[in-house]
Write a structure and sequence with these properties.
By secondary structure, the chain is mainly beta. 4% of the residues lie in helices and 46% in strands.
Length: 743
């Protein structure tokens, strides 16, 4: 019969329905029993410990020496935690010494905190003694709990017993494959292997186009995007309206072709109009094929480089084809756009010179011929949509299109224009033909021409078909403008079509004291602002090393190995802001070095950043120091933001520097430090592009949000889609939980 000390330890307790990052603190009946606690181990384990970050909170008379990982109870060292490096392999392991007691062991267990750099995982607690005997019982905090969803456009859920924590955030999102951004479901996989859900590898023998993947998810308006995994293979991807492995790559109706690192277009297997290639690419470039209406466009890093002249009228699906073994594509995503409503109206040209304007016609009535004497301009703003008209003749000179302002009466005021030059069509942008572009042939007085703006991209259309896409991005509001050179020249049937993006999936109802200010996106409860929507967020830093989350949005750099040095500790978010936005934080000290800002490739260094160097701030862009901004304190809020491709640096909201270099591309929040123990606090990001909530409905609650306010805000959220499949995530202490309790 074994001695009592050889018996395994006994672990017991019940898991409460309230789940949060304090783990077992609310497990009131937690009990860990063993005769001798010397060398007893408590183990917190997860399925993927690399994505979990544990730390010890200083509660219940517990304290932690972060440099040695020693744990104290009532001022006495009773145990030691494993290293951060070891945690990434085994989870958190705490070994107690001979000074440990039952009360101390249980107090330490309740003080453990966990956060995740990705979706929450189950956390399992087990106990093991010095001889390796493990407790028969384990306790598990589940990662998620689920409940039922009411019908569309109904209040989603009433939250009960949410932990009353400061800076709580709620994120409502749909996992329906019909809307939003998601990884496609592949219904045909031929000679390919799919790893990590969105990486596809050709595993067939080389020499023919025999490897394919095809998705069952339909695309009406939307895009598919990916990165090519190499530059020495042949791969195509894009849209297919049917699937047949017998057709070869011609099954792709619209495709981007990476031919040993060189990009070209293929449509149903052919090169459109003997189109040339579009240069080389890297494995970091993101390519997309996009359809809006019947028009298909091809994009590189969100910039359109070609628009198809072939209308797309059928539902399409993601498809990719390979010819070389080992070829791969990564980061495969589908983004289905939300429908927008369009309103057309007759334009009011309220600023004009030398024109006679009626409802359906503008005629040049200037006393003299030549450009600059006859122009019609509308002060009505076009953010999304297009302007259209017909030329009234084929023997005169007329331009029309979009202008940012009416700073002059010459044709160069038109930023984007279609030019009818005695019946021959060409393009002018700020007065010049783009890249010595040739003309586009003759027109008749029955042809309808349009200049369309979608986001920052301008396209030119004839009878609904795109014939050219501008390579110049627009960032300003635009206005309908027409100008004439010849007396008697006219245009007819002038119309402006304005697109109004749908509000997205989610809305806030005015119920139970809740109201929404649509301009500021602030949510009030009983006339007090308690939250903002899709604004400030705690970043999800999913790539990083050598740091610990010590609070809601406080990060402490704790190194593996040496005490100091660049490259040992940092955080990088693979999530990014495609549009304008900012990152802000405060420094936890003035005697350390920390860089923060926007990265574009990896964690090594923010490409545009503020460098807090022992109490002094400098700006670094690329590898150069571009400005010195003086001293800072731990109370100062430092921020970097992008607006219309311009980078702005602020301290406490006041601009202290503006970059002379435009920043185009995706923004990845990044923070790095060479100093052990360096700390940053109040870390937040804000995406300024909040017209639609396509990526979820994120509600950041402030310190004024009471339990009653939290419940009321959650209940006021409504969903606008049929058959919604919605989860509600709760964020706090940088932890993410799916939490939709049933009633």
């Amino acid at each position: 019969m074994p001695a009592q000390n050889d018996l395994p330890p006994v672990l017991s307790g019940s898991i409460p329905r309230i789940h949060d990052s304090t783990l077992f603190e609310k497990c009131q009946d937690l009990s860990i029993t063993h005769k001798n606690y010397n060398n007893l181990r408590i183990i917190f384990n997860t399925a993927n410990p690399k994505l979990a970050h544990f730390n010890i909170r200083e509660i219940n008379e517990i304290s932690l020496e972060s440099d040695t990982q020693k744990i104290l109870y009532n001022g006495v060292v009773i145990g030691t935690g494993n290293s951060v490096e070891n945690m990434t392999k085994q989870g958190l392991v705490i070994i107690f010494n001979k000074a440990a007691t039952k009360e101390g062991v249980e107090a330490v267990t309740r003080a453990v905190n966990v956060s995740f750099s990705d979706d929450a995982q189950e956390v399992t607690l087990s106990v093991k003694n010095a001889e390796g005997s493990k407790s028969a019982n384990t306790l598990t905090i589940p990662a998620s709990i689920f409940g039922s969803i009411p019908p569309a456009d109904q209040n989603l859920v009433t939250f009960n017993n949410i932990p009353d924590l400061d800076n709580l955030a709620l994120n409502f999102k749909t996992s329906s494959p019909k809307k939003g951004i998601f990884i496609p479901v592949f219904d045909h996989i031929v000679h390919c292997k799919i790893t990590n859900k969105n990486t596809i590898i050709d595993i067939a023998h080389p020499g023919s186009w025999s490897s394919y993947v095809h998705s069952s998810d339909v695309i009406k308006d939307g895009r598919v995007s990916l990165r090519f995994g190499q530059t020495d293979r042949q791969v195509m991807f894009g849209f297919s309206d049917t699937f047949s492995s017998q057709e070869g790559f011609s099954v792709l109706n619209y495709a981007i072709f990476s031919n040993n690192g060189v990009i070209s277009i293929r449509e149903s297997g052919n090169i459109p109009k003997s189109l040339p290639s579009f240069g080389k690419h890297t494995i970091d470039d993101v390519f997309s094929v996009e359809r809006i209406g019947n028009t298909v466009a091809y994009l590189k890093n969100d910039v359109t480089f070609y628009v198809s002249t072939v209308n797309s009228t059928e539902d399409v699906h993601f498809c990719s084809a390979f010819t070389d073994i080992g070829a791969s594509v990564t980061d495969v995503l589908q983004h289905n756009y939300y429908p927008a409503t369009e309103g057309s109206f007759t334009v009011k040209f309220d600023q004009s010179v030398g024109c006679k304007i009626t409802k359906n016609e503008i005629i040049n009535t200037a006393k003299a011929g030549g450009w600059g004497n006859s122009i019609a301009y509308s002060s009505g703003i076009l953010k999304e949509g297009y302007v259209s008209l017909r030329f009234g003749q084929t023997d005169k000179q007329v331009m029309f299109g979009l202008a940012a302002n009416l700073s002059s009466h010459t044709f160069s005021v038109l930023n984007y224009a279609i030019f009818s030059n005695n019946g021959v069509i060409s393009i002018r942008e700020s007065g010049n033909p783009p890249k010595s572009l040739p003309s586009f042939g003759k027109h008749t007085i029955n042809d309808v021409f349009s200049v369309k703006r979608c986001g920052n991209t301008i396209t030119y259309l004839k009878n609904g078909m795109v014939f050219y896409a501008s390579t110049v991005i627009t960032t300003k509001d635009m206005h309908f403008c027409v100008t004439f050179a010849d007396l008697g020249a006219s245009v007819t049937d002038m119309l402006q079509y304005t697109s109004y993006p749908a509000d997205g999936l989610f809305g806030i109802k005015n119920v139970k004291g809740i109201s929404l200010n649509k301009a500021t996106r602030e949510v009030s409860y009983n006339h007090t602002v308690v939250a903002t929507i899709n604004q400030d967020k705690i970043p999800k830093f999913d790539l990083g090393r050598g740091y610990t989350v010590t609070g809601i949005n406080t990060l402490l750099f704790t190194f593996i190995g040496p005490k100091s040095g660049w490259g040992l500790a940092g955080l990088y978010s693979s999530s990014y802001m495609k549009h304008d936005g900012r990152i802000s934080l405060s420094m936890g000290q003035t005697d350390s070095q920390v860089m923060f800002g926007f990265g574009n490739k990896d964690i090594s260094q923010p490409y545009h950043c503020m460098f807090a160097n022992n109490g002094v701030i400098v700006v670094i862009e690329g590898s150069k120091t571009t400005a010195s901004l003086g001293k800072y304190t731990t109370e100062d809020v430092l921020s970097i933001e992008r607006r219309n491709y311009t980078l702005i640096y602020r301290k406490n909201g006041v601009i202290i520097n503006t970059s002379t270099e435009d920043l185009v591309g995706d923004l990845h929040p990044t923070i790095i430090s060479p100093d052990h123990g360096a700390k940053v606090t109040n870390v937040q990001i804000r995406d300024f592009y909040t017209k639609t909530d396509t990526d979820g409905f994120y509600i950041m609650l402030n310190e004024k949000a009471s339990q009653a306010a939290i419940d009321a805000v959650a209940e006021a959220v409504s969903c606008q889609i049929d058959d919604p499949d919605v989860t509600v995530e709760i964020f706090y202490s940088a932890k993410l939980l799916d939490a939709l309790p049933g009633n």
